[in-house]
Amino acid sequence: MHLIPHAAILAMTIASSVGVVAATMGEHELAQARSAAGGHYWRAVMTLSASGHIETAGLAGRWDRQEDVLTGRVREASDLGVSTSAEGDDGHGRWRQDPSGGVHPLNSAFAQQVTVTQRWLNRRGWLATNLAGAKIGAIANRTDEGRHYVVIQATPEAGQPVDLWFDRVSHQLARTVRAMPTSILTVRYGDYRKVAGVWLPFRIESQESGSPDMDRVTVDHWQLNRPIDDAHFRAPTPPADANLTGSTTVPIRMAGFIVLPAKINGQDFEFLLDTGGHNIITPAVAKALGVKPVGAGSSGGAGSEQIAEQYVRIDRLDIGAASMLNQHFYVLPLQYNTVEQGSRPPLAGILGLEVFERFATRIDYAQRSLTLTKLDQYHYSGRGVAVPIRFFDDMPLVDIRIDGHDGVAAVDTGNGGTMIVQGIWAQQQGIADQLKAGLKTVSYGTGGASTNWSSRVGKVEIGGLSVDHPIGRYAEDSAGAFSSRTEAANIGTDILSNFAVEFDYGRGVVWLEPQVGHVPEPYNRSGIRASKTEPDTFHVALVNPGSPGDLAGLKQGDTIISVDSVAASALSGRDLLDKFIQPVGTEVRLAVRRDNAVHDLRVRLAEMLP
Predict the structure, then answer these.
(1) Would you say residue 609 lies in a domain?
(2) Burial 127-145 (b: 16+ CB within 10 A, else e)
(3) Residue 555 belongs to what domain range?
């Protein structure tokens, strides 16, 4: 049992006299905040425990939180029936237990900054007269929804900035605001009540910008100085819900991304394998399985849009000889162009984080195979290079160098195309204008369409290995996965297929084995970007000026109804791209509908990105 000494709290958390920040503009406001929070009564607070209920994404359940006020360690958990999840900080780092029960660290460089600031908030660092080592930045008066606030920005040493909103009347902390990689996180506090001399919020609401979802917590009880064992803050042991003896290898298909066969409750389906996603099924598959989704949340991804999200428990998932029991799945109406496969049945959904948390996963792009081994039985025996992977959220991140510029890249097997270069990072490196001079294109993800500019970069380096002259698609989205403030790039099939790739989430490493003789896929040689939004046609979203498609007379907004005399209904988006990456000089015949008339066009392919 770990008990926090009273003297340490006295020294590190609260002091009642005015100290080193007396000369700052915010000292008067901070002094009022200290008094409003309970002043000297905070000296006696060592731990805080709270219990209550939470409403989020159309679900309701139990919620609890324990805080070590001395060190900032914390554990917060919720039970929503269809799922249980938790997140915490054991003093060495943060961890997350996702709704399936799987566990992974939150340990990227930016995640560590977030951890430092969260610990500072848990310690109530703004109540200390020396601000517990934080620096005061901007101070402003704000009005929102008729209420007036003093907003003080604080930056703990080695942490991220946080805006503290203090109510002008009560002087209590009303909200905190922090910039995350692709969103702004706002946490609101209200319904303050006095507990043993200190004022604590009985209503806590959290929301990220761009999402309609809000976590609403109503606290039933706060308890001060309840003893909390050190072990309580540690990452929990994942459930024993995965079964596999030895290893299992299954064939995969490449449709740009990886298509993986699997069984759900004994029925055969095909899934997209996505390190950037979770286990997901579509509503049609949920209906076919006879399971009833619950909840009413939202989800995003590449692009700025949000789609409806529900949740369900699945009895069994089988991949080859590997099985996962009683699994949480998200239910998402994935875009038609994501799941359609032409004449084949549509994809059932996505398999993602939950698989990688349980199995070491080898993807052999050249051999078109995937091999799973339980993490506790896995030992790497190849000759690849070990590259550390870290997490801010749920997607693995690696250090990368693009044409001599260092950054962090997401490793995204769900990206079935070329490397995405993030706009904010490119601007910081002074290469945005150069990249935007490339060929305009459009990509699609869970969050809808994203406009990109494609060009070749000189070299991409990961773990000392290099890929020469790959294509980079520059994105400057204002929302979604391609609007990151902290990442340099998102690497997918175009980079990863240069290697056999082995993910070991248990040890935090991905092994890269260079594939001798690998020939990268050609870039689209038509200058046409089209996708399937309905079964019988391809919608033309973009035609590059002067491209083969433009010279053939194709226009944005046209619909393609057949390709080389094959009806569009029998072709997938990938089939169409395969037509457009044939050798230079190949003629592709398109039947195109425009203004209720059908035109026969011939597109002679040419190199668009030499």
Answers:
(1) no
(2) bbbebbebebeeeeeeeee
(3) 528-604
